[in-house]
Every structure is written in C-alpha cells, then in structure tokens.
Request: fold
Amino acid sequence: MNCDDVKNDLYFYIKNDIDLPTKKGIEEHIEKCSVCKELLNEFSKTLRVVDKCYVKVPSKNWDYFAEKTMDKIHVKRIYSFLRPTIGFMACVLIFAFSYRYYQLQKLQTITYVPSTEETVSYLVDFDIPELNE
Amino acid sequence: MKVKVQNNFEEIIIKHQQKIYKFIFSFVKNENDTDEIAQQTFFNAFKGYKKFRGESSVDTWLIKIAINNIRTHFRKKKFFSIFKVLDNEEIEIKDLKDDSKSAEEVVKNKMISNKINKAIEDLPARQKEVFVMKHIDGLSISEIADILEIAEGSVKASIFKAINNLRKLLGGIDEL
Ligand SMILES: [Zn+2]
Reply:
C-alpha cells in the first residue's frame, strides 16, 4: 500500500470498518511511514472532538407529524394549482386598472375645463333677470 | 384511485419519516428548518410518486429528494447571511445531563459544539454531504455513492478531504 491508498482508508481503519487484509496493509505501512502515522493520530483526535458535539434529534409525536405533513401536502397542492390562476387574475386586474386610468386621463384632456376667469367673463355675458322684480 | 394513492403515500410517510427527519436534522441541526424541509421533501415525493418506478429503494429515493432540499436550504441561508450582520444562531446542545458540570463548563461545551458544527457546515458541499452521511447518519459507502451518483472511490476521497479540513479548522480545539 502507498500513502494515497492508506489516506483514503484511514477513516475506515479508525472506525474498524475495514477488511482484515487492508487493515494489515495499513498497519504495515504505518510502521514505516511517519507521515501517515501522524495523520492517523491527528484524524483520531479530530474525530474524537467531532463526536463530543452531539445535537440531539428532537423527539416528535410521529402520528401527528405525519398528519401535519399530509395536510401541508394538500395545502401546497391547492396552492400550486391556484398559483397560475392567481397570477393570471392579478395580470388581468393590473391591465384593467391601467386601461381605466388611461381612459380617464384621455377623458380629462378632451373635456378641457376653461380657467375661472374665462368662465366668469363668459357667464357675465348672460343677461340674468333680477329675481326681486 | 386518488384516494388509494393518498393512502399509500401516507403509509410511506409513516414508514420513512423518522429516518428522513433524522437525516435532514443531521445537516440542519434546527427543529423548525428540519420540519419544513421534511414536509417539502414529502411534498416533492408525492408529486413524483407516480413516476417512481422503484429503480432504487424508497429510502434512497426520499434521501435524494431530501438532499436537494437541504442544498437549497443552505444556498438560501448563505444568500441571506449577507444581510445578517451578526449570526447569533444558537444550536441546541444536549447539555450532557451531568450535574457535576459547572455552568461555566456547560457554556464552554456549547461554544465548542457550535464551533464544531460551524466547521462541518463550512466544509465544501460535497465533503460535508459525504462526511455527514457516513459519520453521522452511518450510511454505507455504496449507499452514499448511489445517492450522490458518484464512484465509491470519490466517496472515500471526499471523506479523507473532509476530515483533513476539519483537522485544520478544529486545530485550536483541545480535546474535551
Ligand atoms: Zn504513508
């Protein structure tokens, strides 16, 4: 075995998850190679540190969780059906409103309201009969 | 027919949810995120259920879907971390139900645990996936190769790289 072979099997050697001939091969190599020997020590130490950190998987009421998952699936399915429809409706609404706004703008420019002064002078021209008489 | 599919699928959830949940949690280490990813995984599976031909076992199929969702989760997390000034996310740590430990020690252990989890999380994606699947989930090399669709040799090489990087990242931590 060379260094590269040993490196890729170091983890399995540490975990004792290896066949006997490979295990013997590694041990023979390590006797001769100080680099791999040092690496084996370092790896064992690193794995010991990693193993000290243990985050507990939360305990759950699994029947309830399965039920909740099924509910979520239904909601997501309905939503995925509705999403294109909602999108389409939103587009139609936006179009309708902008069209209406455009029409209103147009209407305002057509029905030009004369300014107050003009209106007054225009109205003055009328002969309004006095009501008191 | 539809009802039958739903009943079958509910059975699948009941049968596989614990394993899938544990698998997702081993990466995410946060209950809320795990809930969400697990439910998303079963939703994706439900959508693809009719197409599932049984080329692989149901477990492997579900894990493949889960790993995709886990990747998406970490991509999102990475993206949003740009906007976070301080990452004060706390990981729940089993406080080693040991009354002999002082509060100081518990805090120290918690800090070390956070550092270890951060180191694993910061590994390159492939190394992290392979390392967690092997070391924490205890999957076999052939299962991992199957799930990630890579050669068994690559799995072993990734495990080596992962531990080698962890060794460098955790160099400062003394053994507890
Ligand atoms: Zn060597």
